[in-house]
């Protein structure tokens, strides 16, 4: 699959960032199964812990519109290097897919494809909660 458009959308989303403390702007573009793209950007807070990352921001936008099935997510920042999702975002994404394609985008537009099963091996997800328990 060609993720060029998704990568470009993540680059655009960076400019929606509210990051007055770190000035590290991150954008995300989430592709749903129906073909819609939802943008997300990081939002910082002076207390730091209430901050939200771009990836979760995009997921929340899509979820609020009723989407629960996703095809891929692209993530970019203002640096010309690949910005990988943090651990919290990886676990958040795992709720919806064990092997979601993740497109890491440099500020120059160059991108690579990886997946959630590579970035979060041996993960814990909803299917684990359904397993038979031995007591």
Account of the protein in words:
- The termini are far apart.
- The chain is built from 5 helices and 5 strands; from the N terminus they run H-E-E-H-E-H-E-E-H-H.
- The chain has a 5-stranded mixed β-sheet.
- By secondary structure, it is of the alpha+beta class.
- The radius of gyration is 15 Å and the shape is globular.
- It has one domain: 3-Layer(aba) Sandwich (Cytidine Deaminase, domain 2).
Question: What is the chains' assembly state?
Answer: single chain
Radius of gyration: 15 Å
Number of helices: 5
The CATH architecture classification is 3-Layer(aba) Sandwich
Query: Beta-strand level of the residues, as a percent range?
Result: 15-25%
The average pLDDT value, as a whole number, equals 97
Q: Which sequence of SSEs, written as H and E, runs from N to C?
A: HEEHEHEEHH
Number of domains: 1
Strand order of the largest sheet: 2-1-3-4-5
Structural class: alpha+beta
CATH superfamily (homologous) name: Cytidine Deaminase, domain 2
Helix content: 25-40%
List how many beta strands DSSP finds. 5
CATH topology: Cytidine Deaminase, domain 2
Give a topology summary.
Layout: H1 4-13, E1 26-32, E2 37-41, H2 54-64, E3 70-77, H3 87-94, E4 101-105, E5 111-115, H4 116-119, H5 126-129
Parallel strand pairs: 3-4
Antiparallel strand pairs: 1-2, 1-3, 4-5
Notable characteristics:
CMP_dCMP_dom, Cytidine deaminase, 5 helices, single chain, 27% helix, globular, 5-stranded mixed beta sheet, Cytidine Deaminase, domain 2, 135 residues, 5 strands, alpha+beta
Task: Give me a quick take on this structure.
The protein is α+β, with helices and mostly antiparallel strands and 135 residues long. Helix content is 27%, strand content 22%.
């Amino acid at each position: 699959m060609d993720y060029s458009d998704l990568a470009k959308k993540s680059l655009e989303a960076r400019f929606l960032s509210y990051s007055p403390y770190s000035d590290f702007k991150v954008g995300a573009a989430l592709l749903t199964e129906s073909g819609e793209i939802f943008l997300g950007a990081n939002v910082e807070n002076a207390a730091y812990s209430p901050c939200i990352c771009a990836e979760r921001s995009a997921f929340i936008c899509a979820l609020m519109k009723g989407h629960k099935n996703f095809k891929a997510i692209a993530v970019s920042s203002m640096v010309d290097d690949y910005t990988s999702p943090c651990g919290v975002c990886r676990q958040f994404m795992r709720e919806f897919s064990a092997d979601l394609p993740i497109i890491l985008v440099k500020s120059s537009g160059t991108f690579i494809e990886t997946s959630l099963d590579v970035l979060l091996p041996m993960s814990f997800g909803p299917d684990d909660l359904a397993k038979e328990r031995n007591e």
